[in-house]
Write a sequence for this structure.
């Protein structure tokens, strides 16, 4: 290890995601492994401003690998967007003797980290934690896999009642401006159609497709709608439009909401978070900064935080093709 960093700080910021605790555990224990001090900062950047921190050792993170949420708590901190807020945060870092930061969060959190780094020259490494999987530079973000499993579990249950009542369900899933959750769960749960922000399907095509399904003998259907879908209508308006134009359908809407962010992380997310936590601390100790840990082709990589923020995590077009073929 090439630096003389003696103490690092770690925080979780933005929307929480299952696996954040596993990442925290890995960061704290990797620091301990390399005889570096570690301080947990509560409520994201807010904890830096309020000086709400806790010295952590390998035992502070016992029994959290299986826990959803984040024991450090999370926040979207408006004060950190101001220069004054960041100055207070830096003064607190100095008081605590924290010389580098690991930020577990999404692109908003990384933007804050980059600005902070450029103003106060404190080394930062990002770990992508968000259910949306919308970060450039990694095939998977922490929490995405668990959220997918939560969603298909919910849609499987909705399917039971849809079949019993011969109903058409519109299920809205999270993802902010990205359709990764919708597209993957649409295929995984066998949905009739998937509406995602990346492809403007158009309501007429949706009507045509639903007419075809009805003619082909399907008595119930599921349509997965990404919350950021670009039809210009929300899920309730889409459902109303379909009901008006295809009155033979008995339509219902289900918005899955924040339950998608909770629950015990999947094994995939636990392993991913553990690898990323180890890699992030070792990158800092190797003198890296302004980088994000990611996974590509199953391997850990580093890429500039700036790219992670500005780049777009593209949808896999093959998934669209597969979904189209299988809804025949
Ligand atoms: O970024 C994660 C996410 O859960 C998005 O999918 C969603 O749009 C947003 O956060 C919801 O944020 P909040 O917790 O502020 O309601």
């Amino acid at each position: 290890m090439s630096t003389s960093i003696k103490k690092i700080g770690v925080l979780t910021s933005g929307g929480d995601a299952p696996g954040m605790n596993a990442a925290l555990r890995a960061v704290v224990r990797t620091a301990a492994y390399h005889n570096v001090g570690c301080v947990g900062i509560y409520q994201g950047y807010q904890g830096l401003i309020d000086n709400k921190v806790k010295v952590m050792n390998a035992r502070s993170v016992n029994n959290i690998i299986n826990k959803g949420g984040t024991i450090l708590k999370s926040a979207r901190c408006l004060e950190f967007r101001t220069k004054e807020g960041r100055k207070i945060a830096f003064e607190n870092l100095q008081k605590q003797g924290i010389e580098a930061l690991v930020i577990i969060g999404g692109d908003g959190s990384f933007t804050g980290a980059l600005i902070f780094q450029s103003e106060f020259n404190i080394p930062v490494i990002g770990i992508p934690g968000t259910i949306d999987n919308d970060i450039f530079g990694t095939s998977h973000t922490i929490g995405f896999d668990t959220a997918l499993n939560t969603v298909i579990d919910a849609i499987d249950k909705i399917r039971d009642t849809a079949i019993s009542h011969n109903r058409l369900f519109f299920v809205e899933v999270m993802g902010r401006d990205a359709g990764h959750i919708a597209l993957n769960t649409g295929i995984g749960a066998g949905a009739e159609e998937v509406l995602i922000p990346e492809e403007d399907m158009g309501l007429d095509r949706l009507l045509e497709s639903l007419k075809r399904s009805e003619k082909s003998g399907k008595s119930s259907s599921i349509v997965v709608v990404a919350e950021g879908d670009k039809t210009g209508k929300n899920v309730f308006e889409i459902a109303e439009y379909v009901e008006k134009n295809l009155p033979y359908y008995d339509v219902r809407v289900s918005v899955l909401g924040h339950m998608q962010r909770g629950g015990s992380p999947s094994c995939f997310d636990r392993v991913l978070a553990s690898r990323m936590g180890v890699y992030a601390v070792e990158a800092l100790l190797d003198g890296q900064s302004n980088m994000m840990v990611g996974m590509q082709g199953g391997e850990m990589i580093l890429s500039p935080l700036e790219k992670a923020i500005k780049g777009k995590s593209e949808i896999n077009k093959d998934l669209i093709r597969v979904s189209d073929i299988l809804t025949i």
